Amino acid sequence: MASVRIHHLYKRYGKDKHAVVKDFQLEIKDKEFIVFVGPSGCGKSTTLRMIAGLEDISEGEIYIGDQLVNKLPPKDRDISMVFQNYALYPNLTVYENIAFGLRMRKLPKHEIDLAVKNASRILEIESYLYRKPKELSGGQRQRVALGRAIVRKPKLFLMDEPLSNLDAKLRATMRMEITKLHKKLGTTFIFVTHDQVEAMTMADRIVVMKGGVIQQCDTPELIYSKP
Ligand code: ADP
Ligand code: ADP
């Protein structure tokens, strides 16, 4: 169960700088698919990184479930994050890339194997489990990155422009794949993009940001039907 509550969140870089995220307030329901959308530099990534614990919070509170996570390191937040550049280990096979986090947690070998195979089945990447990232296409790499994220069974998925390196056709396919994945897993997703089509087709609710503040927060139907 992962609802997320964000309360009066601010981010300032440096002491007397103006805030790049200002008074951000949001309640995300368990299993919701939330998309942060807005122009480059509006604070989407910074907000996501604060939720992930990759960036200090200047002011405010973030709760994941009932836990105040302001001071928790990323590894204790029960989250998985997928980035634009995949961040796969180039010298490890697909299998080893997916297993990596579970090995770090010292799970027994047969459990790791089961989890990797299961994630591979869900993402349909079984046929290239023993290849290295450089032998894969961009879309295949992004599937592996998703596999590595889901294998940990997190309560919360954070995605930062995961499709922006893909060509238009693959982007359309992966939009559907991620929507399917969300339904299959029944986990809360927060997805950052500057692409309105992604926001419109994937989100349960869209948070429109501009200049560090939330301009609108509503369902796609309501946001894009307004004049
Ligand atoms: P209690 O401390 O007995 O849980 P509270 O009224 O402080 O009662 O909080 C009720 C719920 O609201 C708790 O689950 C808590 O995590 C959450 N909560 C408290 N303060 C905040 C806040 N500033 N922003 C978001 N959630 C909050
Ligand atoms: P978005 O994800 O919407 O493109 P970001 O959250 O990356 O926007 O950035 C929001 C603002 O914060 C931008 O003006 C950016 O230049 C600034 N910013 C991001 N990271 C840093 C940093 N490490 N130091 C100073 N300013 C930063």
Automatic annotation (TrEMBL):
Keywords for the protein's UniProt record, in alphabetical order: ATP-binding, Nucleotide-binding, Transport
Single GO MF annotation: ATP binding
One GO BP annotation of this record: carbohydrate transport
GO-annotated cellular components: ATP-binding cassette (ABC) transporter complex, substrate-binding subunit-containing
Residue stretches making up the ABC transporter domain: 4-227
Protein name: Glycerol-3-phosphate ABC transporter ATP-binding protein
Organism field: Paenibacillus naphthalenovorans
Residues of the whole record sequence present: 1 to 227 of 369
